[in-house]
From TrEMBL:
Residues in coiled coil: 178-215
Ranges of compositional bias, category Gly residues: 158-175
Cofactors: Mg(2+)
Gene3D superfamilies given in the database record: 6.10.250.2860, GTPase HflX, N-terminal domain, P-loop containing nucleotide triphosphate hydrolases
Coiled coil found in the keyword field: yes
PROSITE patterns, A to Z: G_HFLX
Organism (species): Thermanaerothrix daxensis
UniProt name for this protein: GTPase HflX
Binding site for Mg(2+): S232, T252
UniProt xrefs under InterPro entries: G_HFLX_dom (IPR030394), GTP-bd (IPR006073), GTP-bd_M (IPR032305), GTPase_HflX (IPR016496), GTPase_HflX_N (IPR025121), GTPase_HflX_N_sf (IPR042108), HflX_C (IPR045498), P-loop_NTPase (IPR027417)
Length: 458
């Protein structure tokens, strides 16, 4: 039977002790103190009671325990004093580090890392079939290299009889613990393969839906931002929707799309997406590929930023970096400076607007600034034109037609296999034509067949 994702922690609440680690050679967008404060919020979102904290700055991680031996001993004492049930590290632990730390702290205390904590939160908040599949896949891919610990204990408890049999009789049988470990690994690998197949079906369905949406010529705007920045509140305000909203991290995971009419009468689609966070687990990024593609296929991004947060600039950088990593860095962005109703000094709005270019101060809660935000969005999509030169293969005839229908063509040059078009495009089409900005060179094959070759801007 396949291992199951742990159920959400019940009552009484477990007591958590947090450990921050800063490796000087690995810079982070947030300071260690701020990152540890964020870990505290994550623990509280997971319904854990934080009973203590410790941190250490290191030039390099300890090969066995990540932190130094002296710090390990210090934390052991603090765990006894606070009666902690679980230790959570504010970084991803390698299987070796986790195993060694569990041995140091004793079997009564569980050792988790930031990734495991975020996975637990995602498991609590995933409600749709797609969301559950994505979280389960991320959990198994995280869990697979960490199976050794449990079955090593089993092998020790059974005395490793299989190994002795092999040495005495020459049969070479594996011990029962090792056998069970391999069985469990195979089961998890089978489950991972199944989940990937199911999510590929979801991805294909989303792609078909996006293609139909493209044909309707309705622009898509994705709301992106740091977790708890107010994206769902903004969607509710724009579309008079009832998307779930809570003052906690990762309150919503599943993308929600709503139709909105802009001031000039244009209809657009707004999509609320999963929030980003620093040190976002790679397993989650991979598992949520189908969801994140909603962002990469957008015509415009509205980056919702909580301007009242003390680390607003750092959070902005984390989101921009994540957008680059998932392939959305070329999509036009408008920054919505959210929660201005909470600013103690209203004059600070002007300074914020100068700090973040292409920004609009708003309050998704009160509605302040929303009309201006919609006006700026409409201008960016339908009124602002940007110069663009694209090289489109003749096989992409619909894209050639799209440029002629909605752009302002200045020059057309025909080549063997493709056409180069220079002109102006409205903002809503910039992202769609981005893949065709690379030059194409025609190469003659031995059979005299000409094929376009991507030169990657050479």
């Amino acid at each position: 039977m396949s291992p199951k994702i742990p159920e959400p922690t019940g009552f009484p609440r477990e007591r958590a002790f947090l450990v921050g680690v800063e490796i000087r050679s690995e810079p982070s967008p947030l300071s260690m103190e701020d990152s540890l404060a964020e870990l505290r919020l994550l623990a509280q979102t997971a319904d854990l009671e934080v009973v203590g904290e410790a941190y250490q700055r290191l030039d390099r991680p300890h090969p066995d325990t990540l932190i130094g031996k002296g710090k390990v001993e210090e934390i052991k004492v603090l765990l006894e004093e606070t009666a902690a049930d679980v230790v959570i590290f504010d970084t991803e632990l390698s299987p070796r580090h986790q195993r060694e730390l569990e041995e140091q702290f004793g079997n009564q205390v569980r050792v988790l890392d930031r990734t495991a904590l975020i996975l637990d939160i995602f498991a609590r908040h995933a409600h749709t079939r797609e969301g559950i599949l994505q979280v389960e896949l991320a959990f198994y891919e995280y869990r697979l290299p960490r199976l050794t610990r449990a079955w090593t204990n089993l092998a020790q408890q059974t005395g490793g009889g299989g190994g002795r049999t092999g040495s005495q009789g020459g049969v070479g049988l594996r011990g029962p613990g090792e056998t069970q470990l391999e069985v469990d690994r195979r089961e998890i690998r089978r489950r991972i393969a199944f989940l990937k197949r199911e999510l590929e079906k979801v991805r294909a369905h989303r792609q078909r839906y996006r293609q139909q949406r493209r044909k309707s010529q309705v622009p898509v705007i994705s709301l992106v931002g740091y977790t708890n920045a107010g994206k769902s509140t903004l969607l509710n305000r724009l579309a008079r929707a009832q998307v779930y909203v809570a003052d906690q991290l990762f309150a919503t995971l599943d993308p929600t799309t709503r139709r909105v009419e802009l001031p000039g009468g244009h209809i657009v689609l707004f999509t609320d997406t999963v929030g980003f966070i620093q040190k976002l687990p790679t397993q989650l990024v991979a598992a949520f590929r189908a969801t994140l593609e909603e962002i990469t296929e957008s015509d415009l991004l509205v980056h919702v930023l909580d301007v009242t947060h003390p680390n607003a600039v750092e959070q902005w950088k984390v989101v921009q970096q994540t957008l680059e990593e998932i392939g959305a860095g070329a999509i036009p962005v408008i920054t919505a400076l959210n929660k201005i109703d909470r600013l103690p000094n209203p004059s600070a709005i002007q300074a914020l607007s100068e700090t973040f270019l292409h920004s609009v101060p708003i309050s998704a809660l009160t509605g302040e600034g929303i009309p201006e935000l919609l006006r700026v969005i409409e201008t960016a999509l339908f009124e602002d034109y940007s110069p663009m030169t694209v090289h489109i293969p003749y096989t992409e005839g619909h894209m050639i037609s799209l440029f002629h229908e909605h752009g302002k063509v200045e020059r057309v040059t025909h080549h063997d296999g493709y056409v180069t078009i220079r002109g102006l495009l409205p903002g809503r089409l910039i992202a769609r034509f981005q893949p065709f900005t690379r030059r194409i060179k025609t190469v003659t094959q031995p059979d005299n067949v000409h094929e376009p070759v991507d030169l990657s801007d050479s």
